[in-house]
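Now for a typical sample entry:
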Amino acid sequence: MNPRLDALHPYPFEKLRRLLAEGGPAPQGLKPIGLHIGEPKHAAPERVRQALAGALDGLSAYPPTKGDAALRQTVSQWLSRRYDIPEPDPETQVLPVLGSREALFAFAQVVIDASVPAKVVCPNPFYQIYEGAALLAGAQPWFVNADPARDFGCDWLSVPDEIWCQTQLLFVCSPGNPAGNVMDLEQWRTLFALSDRHGFAIAADECYSEIYLDETAPPLGAMQAAQRLGRSDYRNLVCFSSLSKRSNVPGLRSGFVAGDAALIQRFLLYRTYHGSAMSPLVSAASIAAWTDEDHVKANRAQYRAKFEAVLPILEPVLDVRAPQASFYLWAGTHGPDTFFARDLHAATGVTVLPGSLLAREAHGANPGAGRIRIALVAPLADCVEAAHRIAGFARSRA
């Protein structure tokens, strides 16, 4: 048995189940409302459904590991339109993947050399795959705590040089999970300079890039930042994107990686043996999704309506504000976040995720403590009802 498995932590939702069990069952007569998992609940686009059904002949063929050429071209064109950059080379700089989750994990197995002391730097709180990928690759995670004064971003210059010298991979998430913060050009300039100096790869997780509130201000992307800073080869940079949130198809398991051709080449070699080729059915559905923006705009409008309805209810009782992007609220609880989530569920049937379960104790603090993540994924009426229950509960504890 792989001994590195013993280093893995229980997943946050497993910890949450145990926590809620301590508080007892939710009250009878109240509809349970789950706002703890970032799983989109809006309807999948009809054009994606039709494309999937129309590609059933693809079941009779093995898919290529490199992915369908038409899909790679489609992704390249989408990147160019979305970020106002030259089309990446679909032959060398784009690779379809089975969702960003599996790709983020697999990428760490490609770039980590565990024969020497290896660090993987990542934000804290963080998507748990970052830590698990590092540990199973034989590296040690090094966490950079989110700073409320930086809109819950990270001070990358606070990482000691001796850590950067051992760093082989940096995970970044912009727009961020859980706070929805977006990295600006100067932050990218800092990271690129550190990568050039120390040679580590940057894995840019952009799965929330298409969920933003201001239609006139889409979030800056990593490849976009690289182009603006004269890094047209995207050296040491690979971006990870997904259709799950953008197009409400988490069950499709479709995304892509794009960036540094040399890293993509090694990643393709790994995947040849890993066996993560995308089905022709999924490729056809993915092309249908990436070539349409109308459903994406409609999706954003639904989330915008939820934020507009929920925030006036919660702002008087919780430390909360609209994020730059994503569908999360990162709310302060004025007390232990675990107790708040446990007792909220027992009293109201609303489930939220304690922030401390998304983070690790690092540098003397757990930066998720005292906050909860509220995922506005339920229907609008349920989100409003949940907000009223949360507000009433918070007032009762004041």
